[in-house]
Amino acid sequence: MTAADTQVVLDKLQSNIDQLELANKGALTALEFRLDAILQANLDTFWLLICAILVFLMQAGFMCLESGLSRSKNSINVALKNLTDFGIAVVVFWAFGFALMYGTSVSGLFGTKFFFFTTKVAGYQTYFVFQAMFVATAATIISGAVAERLKFYSYIIITFLASGFFYPIVGHWSWAFNFENPEEKFGWLGQLGYLDFAGASVVHSVGGWIALSVLLIVGNRTGRFREDDKSKSFQGSNTPIAALGALILWFGWFGFNGGANGAMDLKIPLILINTFLSASFGLIFSSIMGILILKKPEPLFMITGPLAGLVSITASCAYVDPADAILIGSIGGIVSGSTIVLLEKVKIDDVVSAIPVHLACGMWGTIAVALFGNFEMMGVEKTRLAQLFIQLIGIVSIGSFCFFGSYIILKIINSFFPLRVNKIQEELGLNISEHNASTDTHELLEVLTKQAKSDDYSSRAPQDPFTDSGIIGTQYNVLMDKLEQSEKQKNKWKNRVSQEIKLAMNVQKRLMPKRDIKNYPIFGLNIPAREISGDFYDFYLHDDEVYFTLSDVSGKGVNAGMVMAKAITLFKIFAKQKFKPNEILLEMNNDLKETNPIGTFITSIVGRYNVKTDLVEIANAGHQPALLKNGKKFKEFTSSSMPLAVTKHKNESVYQLESFKLDGGRIYCFTDGFSECMDENKQEIGIEGVKDLILKHENSSLKKELENATEEIRLKTLKTGTLEKGIKENNDILDDDLTIIGIGN
Question: What angle do CA 564, 548, 696 make, to 5 degrees?
Answer without folding.
Answer: 105
